[in-house]
Fold:
Amino acid sequence: MKRGYRYRIYPNKEQINLLEQHFGSVRFIYNRSLFIKNTMYSKFKINVTEVDLNNNLTSLKEQYLWLKDLNSQSLQQANRNMLTGFKNFFEGNGDYPTRKSKRDNNFSFQVPQNYQINLTTSKIYLPKIGWIKIVLHRDFLDKEFIKNELVTKQVNGELILDQKLNKEFDILKTLTVSRTSTGRYHVSILIDDHIPEPIPVEFHETTTIGIDIGIKSFAILSSGEVIDNPKFLKKSLKKLKKLQRAVSRKKISSKNRKKAVLKLAKHHQLIANQRNDFQHKVSIKIISESQAVCLEDLNVSGMIKNHKLAQAISDVGWSEFIRKLIYKAEWYGKNILRIGRFDASSKLCNVCGYRKDDLTLKTRKWECPSCKTFHDRDVNAAINIKNIALNNLNTVGTTERACGLTGIGQRYEARSHSIY
Ligand SMILES: [Zn+2]
Structure:
């Protein structure tokens, strides 16, 4: 099973310069290769390959000498990422690759090989950059791996993880270095412990729960439980609007504006952290309390038409929450059942199946004209999501389908690995 671990690093001034050079150059190569890829295809119908692009890198280095100061593998990785973007696009798993810009916070590069971590002195070695202080606030290597020296070695009594030792066992995957808009540097280490995911447990109607996205609250469960957004998050979102207004009032390119922008960026970070914590807590609670969790697939582009709902979804970070639910389900061997977006879960009466086509988003409570059941809109939707998901299983047959469905999670994980 692959898991990602993120740690903060504290580079010195000289290292910061080198890191920034890597961020910029990786973006440069990515954009350059994207241009070549697009042009060669549109003009000559030639499909440029990774080998072509990497060969081109050699001539680029003659042209732009500063590229020689950088880790070639990080640059090659930029080519690979760009091509993976195309692959994902053609498989229907992403948007058409576009240029990366500074403005979209694209400050990251990957180090596929030759990194080291001194676990005794808490320092990480990155090729072409050197040893940087790292805060390893939690273990990422299994104790058995260390005991058997699978990817670590002892040097002068210090325990050192060396990616070069990895060849045989392939435990250490790509390392990603990134910078936040507030100027913090992190590394994310992707580890494959080669332990298969647990086989999903069996589940029954009583141990299955349906979740619906809330507009006023965060989520609603088929049990009737309403999960509210925490108060501190609501407060922070209010303050965010204030800070945004403060920025817009300041003169462009003034010192005060810069200050206000930094303040705003820091507040964004705070909200991201608060939301992350909250989502971890909620997802772990839901996963531990049930054997199967039913979700509706989000068709976000379809929802953009409905501005209010789109806003609600982006506010709660719903897709990130689903991602957390899915990988936690995999870790703990629980099932995720997903249904299509157009199963009209909120319009059906969960008791008699009457379809109330004229139900608007504003209507929070309604009475079924057919069976006279009084519904809370969201709870009814959550129950329907659960019923439809279980019903889909019954019509296809066995729980095999349920296991197959968690495969969606695997694909998901492969694309964007989990950072816990
Ligand atoms: Zn009814």
